[in-house]
Structure formats: structure tokens, C-alpha cells
Design a protein that fits this description.
4-stranded antiparallel β-sheet; disordered N terminus; FG-GAP; 8-stranded mixed β-sheet; mainly beta
Amino acid sequence: MRWPAPTSLAAIVSVAALLGASRPADIAFRVQMIDPGYGETVTVADVNRDGKLDIVSGESWYEAPGWTKHPLRSINYANGYIDNFADLAMDVDGDGWTDIIQFSYFAHNIVWLKNPGKAGGEWKASEIDNSGPTEFAFLVDLDNDGRANELLPEFDRPNAPAAWFEHRDGKWIKHVVAPQSYGHGIGVGDMNGDGRNDILTPKGWLEAPMDVRAEGFWKFHPMDWGWKYIPPSGTPADEVKPSAAAQRAGAQFGYMYLLDINGDGRKDMVTGMAHDYGLAWYEQTADGHFVQHVIDSSWSQAHASQLVDMNGDGQPDLVIGKRYFAHNGGDPGEREPVGIYWYEWRKVSPATAQNGGVEWVRHIVDYGGRMGGGVQTVAVDIDGDGDIDLISANKSGLFLAENLTKSSTKNTRR
């Protein structure tokens, strides 16, 4: 069994250190288990309208501040998984109470659960679609109104059409944008600078037309992102070969984000390898190609991620963690320790071609315990004290990592 050192970073030249710059400060966290049960999804919302953010995960919601457990619905368990792969919070029916949208893999459906409101009682489930399976999904802005109110699932089946969903005039509307899905990974961003968000996939991107609601497929632009297999850090060069997962399916990304990493005015892409080792950013060159740069290859199954400013410097950081037993023992590194981290990046001078002139600094939230990344990780100020906390769920349990930056001596919730 290979256990990676928690302080190693792959393919990073620490030019800043050579020039005498100090390492950025870490953030202290207090990790709390909310529930030891099985699950991999999480979202937050003020479920009971008491002004406090509650936690929602799979079959239950947890009432703040003591995280009292309340039922949502019963979900089937099969093949080592609870059949729920995304929880999204949204007031679907506009009654002022936050509802929950859930995505299944084995049942192939998407449902929304109506919040029973002040009266309490059953959360009634209504089906939105039945064409999955969905491995993960998120809320995005695909009608370009500045609000992330559209559903974008990653249909994990080649013959399932790529689609997004909106709720309009009291109905769910499915917009099919391609006759097939394009592999493991999904994202949204304006690729061509026309002001409209496009859909990113591991094999290319789907260009949003002027009328995003018009019938017909979006133009597909094939792209391989320059992807190359990322071996575990420390692997001798003569032993580097694609893992079984890479040979089987090529790049299996998690969430894909489009943003300018190195400050050259061109949008780059950053993602994790959901079922293999490594996370990477893809530098967009002047000719429109993308070059892969490794951020970290010391751990595997970087399935869930979120971009958020953790340290208040005005630049988003990458929050990401190792999923526990994603394929029940079948992925590279599954039996190695889980962890959850946040990565910040800095331009370095002189620029190094080895990593695109960018240095990535890994900050450990938790390592070697039970908290990992699951298929969803939420970064939000859940206790209202002014700093960003992290919530995630895994087959190893549901966890809250409380940021102690502004509450080291007094927690405003206690």
C-alpha cells in the first residue's frame, strides 16, 4: 500500500521560496462529525426559515445550530452506494421555502422535494426527468441572467443526451443540447468571449447559441485539453504508465472551472481527476490550445471541488478533497488516506515553463482522518462569523470543518 506524504507537491518549482518569499499563512479548522452514516452529497440552506443555515445530505437535513437530524425521504441503497449523487437547494415553487433537488444514478431520475414549510410533515417528491444516470450536478447560469438557477447534470452514459434544465412558468423544461454526453466531467464558462456561458466536457465544449432556449443541438468543438495521465508523485520515470482507470476511460474529470489562472487575459481550465491521481490546470495558449500543468499528484479521486476565496485576498482558491472508496476499491489510490485541502496560486518570477509560471500552495484542512471530498463539497460561512467553513460527505460520514480564523475564542453560534 502506498501512502503519499501529506506535504509533497508534484511538478512544482518553488521559485518564490528561492527568492525569499514566505509561505502564505494556513487556516486552522476544527473538524466535527455531523453524522457517521453513509452518504456523499451535501448542500446548505435555511430549511426552516429561522435565519440559520442548515445542512442537507441525502436522506436527512440537519438543523442548526446543534445539527438535529430530520428526515427528508428514504433513498435506495445498491452496489455499495446510496442512490443519491447531488443535493441542490432551490425554492422551486416560489413559496418562500427552500426545496431540495436530488439526482440518482441507478434509478436514472431527477426529483425535487417540496419543503412542507411551517406545517411540517412529508417532503413530497416529484420527478423532473428520467434519463440519467447522473454522477454529479450543479446549479449554473445558462440563460445568462446573472443567476445560477439552471440544473446541469453530468449524465454518465454515452447515449444519454447532454441537457440542462430550467424551471419556468411553473414547469421544468429540458433543453437537449447534444445527442450524447461527452465523458466524465462537466462545467460552464464563456469559452469564446461572446458573453454567453458554454458547456465544458472532457472531450470539448458546446457553444451556446444566441437563443439558448431554441430547439436544436449546440455546436460541439472537439478538444482534448492536452490531457496526459498523471502518475502518483515519486513514480520513477521508467515505471510511469497509464493506470487501469486511465486506460479504460481516459480523462475522468470532476467539476471543470474556467478562469484566468496566470493573468495573461486568457481563460484557463482547472479540474481534478475524479477516479485517478492528480489535479491540474490547463493553460490556454495564444493559439487557443490548452497545455496541462500538474498541481498535485500525491493523492487520487479528486471528485468534488469548489472555487471560493478562503483567505480574503480577492482571488478564488480551489477547495477539493479525496473521495473515499469512489468505486469501492477499484480506483487507483482508493485505500490511501483521505483528506480535504484548499489550494491557492501565485504568479512567480522568473516564470517557469515547468508549471506555467504559477506556484500552487496546498493547505491541509484534514488528512488521515475520515473527512474527505465525496461528490459534493460546500464552502460557505455556515456559522455567520465572517469566515468560510467547509462541509462534505463521504461513505465515511458527514463532516463540518469550522474555520477558526474569526471564531478561535468565541463561536457566535454557541
